[in-house]
Design a protein that fits this description.
heterodimer, A: about 220 residues, mainly alpha, 6 helices, B: about 270 residues, alpha/beta, Rossmann fold, about 50% helix
Amino acid sequence: MNPEVAILWAGAIATLGVYTILYRENPISRLFEHIFVGLSAGYLLFTTWTQNLEGKWWGPMVHQRQWYWAFAPVVGLLFYFIYSRRLVWLARLVMGLFFGVAAGTTFRQFFPLYSPQIYKSFKPLLPQAGLVWADVILHHWIFIVILLTVMSYFFFSIPHEGRFGRGLGRSSLLGRWFLMIAFGAMFGNTVMARISLFIGRVQFLLKDWIGHYLSWFAQRAGG
Amino acid sequence: MQQIPRHYIYLLLAGVVVWQLLAPMPLPISPSTATRGLYEAIRAVPEGKLIIISTDWDASTQAETWPQTEAVIHACFQARKRFVIMNMQPPMGVKLANDIALEVGKQYRARYGVDWANWGYKYGYGNVLMAMAKDIAKTIGDDFYGRPVTRLPLMQGVRSIRDIGLVVEVTGLAGVTEYWIGLIQGPYQVPFAAAYTAVMAPGYYPYLDSGQMKGMLVGAKGAAEMEALVRSPGKATTIMNVQSWAHLLIIALIVVGNLGYLLARGRREERRQ
């Protein structure tokens, strides 16, 4: 069998097999799920070796005599001491190292990530050069009202009693409505994404798989 | 009306999808500001600087991310901008993007190593980016085919992240953008743009509003808009035609479900009185 045709058939059978879940939970759909997970894991292992470890670790250690790279897997294996009560401190040592690196990277990322968004939330509320009332009200006022009311929703330490508390309660209720609208928009996008995936698969079945045979028959009939 | 068996809903949806794939009724596509931002960012890359396309996606999201990557590559070739593909996770993206670049490159007679290259899958997230900021060749080492990147003509004069004119991240994976913005766009002021699956896009609009992101493609819709801009209608344009009809069906089902609920509530209240 031509390898391209075999790939088409494998793709079609796997797609139909996975979609049998729509009828009900069954062993066929489970089988294809496990095949997919296995393939992904195998591919990850293969590419991690060919694209990373072979060139960055094995090559220098074996061909360029940088023998000290032999200690890298030893450090990695220290993680497994988590299963030993007596030697668990060895696992903690290497975990501490990773926590330190991750915390340092996160700290470095934090300000460039969020500070521009904080600056940009200070928007002019009155018309200025190049800005008319319609722009200011449509973009800036709506933004500020939503920002403040949503933030007020997350003030949990002030009871909604008394004049100030009741005002905060109303603002937080409005904030909750805005959050619900945002979640609705997110859910709409989720529906769009899921349908895109389904259309992609139907497109494959109709155009690539069935289409392949239709064009083959058309060629035969024409020839 | 509230208890339509789900199998009927699936069949209806499948019917609409098949109908629109076989007999499409195209609807107009007009590019949004976010899509135009990405398109303009690609065209604005100065001569001599490279574009990095970080393809952090795999087969599970390819209905959206494949056409997004394809449209971005079209835009790069049309604007005669040199680009490199790289990937941090999941590794399948780098192979799929390589196939796309080879296919699209044929139309523009693009040469590997001269007009584009593939840096491959590089594991290590933030650590890779921090190292790349200082020395790209040393960090990347070998390309997708196992050849040292220093031998690629495209890499001449490319030393650090300062020689990169734009980063375009195509992803279905939350969290990678934060590394690019926090460690590259912010500290080194390298322009950044992205293409996301529709599920994750809403969470990234604040980055667009703050100017940290030059442009954004949202799911298949963004890919279809980009295809319109590069005048190369492809998979995403087809998907969006079908999508619009599928959405109409879902809206109709929501209306029917809610009508059923209201009618049932009315009847309950009548019985109580």
